[in-house]
Amino acid sequence: MIALLVALTFLVAVLMDHLINRQPLILAESVQDHTSPRPRLVPSVIAGFAVPDNLRYHPGHTWAVSESPDRVRVGIDDFAAKVAGDVVKIEIPERGQWIRQGQKIISLKRDGRELDLVSPIEGTIVDINEAALKDPRIARNDPYGEGWLIAVNAPDAKTNFRNLLGGSIARKWMDDAAARLRSFAPMPAGAMAQDGGMAADSLINTLPKEEWEKVEKELFLI
Predict the structure, then answer these.
(1) pLDDT at residue 190 above 70?
(2) Domain residue ranges in the chain
(3) Which CATH number fits domain 56-185+199-219: 2.40.50.100, 1.20.1250.20, 3.40.190.170, 2.40.37.10?
(4) What is the pTM of this model?
């Protein structure tokens, strides 16, 4: 009985304090609003290039993300998309072909130039983004979303992912890649954003042809 009276006295005191101070009454902190939308992942922007944290990157500027334990989606990163610019054709292997990690599998073609890119994963190609092949602008404008290129059945995906870059290491790598790109040829004003903005498109247009092979070798590992 005494315990009950103490509990009632405490409850009355809480209610009186609420009425006097007009403060919201919180009876249980564990009650949450589950109707609020989940926060969306916002890509980091490093030296003008988007680097989403949920992906893993090959140093040759392709990315991979697991869709299931054995299925991996693959595409080009924002750096490759902007360097290549107005690509008119994308060439990739056919479904059913086995590809190796580090093997040249993607070719971006434009204005007599070609940018080759390597696979970030090993396995069998099981799906191809036909829409991006028909309209390369999709891969250029949305390389991490609708512009993905292939899906791979990768039985050793866990091991392959250990060889890829992520998190702060990926951000540092992208910053270094942007600095190395600037070292090949002076960029026009605004071409490489230094203030966190997006880099300009078609950076390949600013590079002399004699420098292009060096760029492919040093930045895209071809």
Answers:
(1) no
(2) 56-185+199-219
(3) 2.40.50.100
(4) 0.77
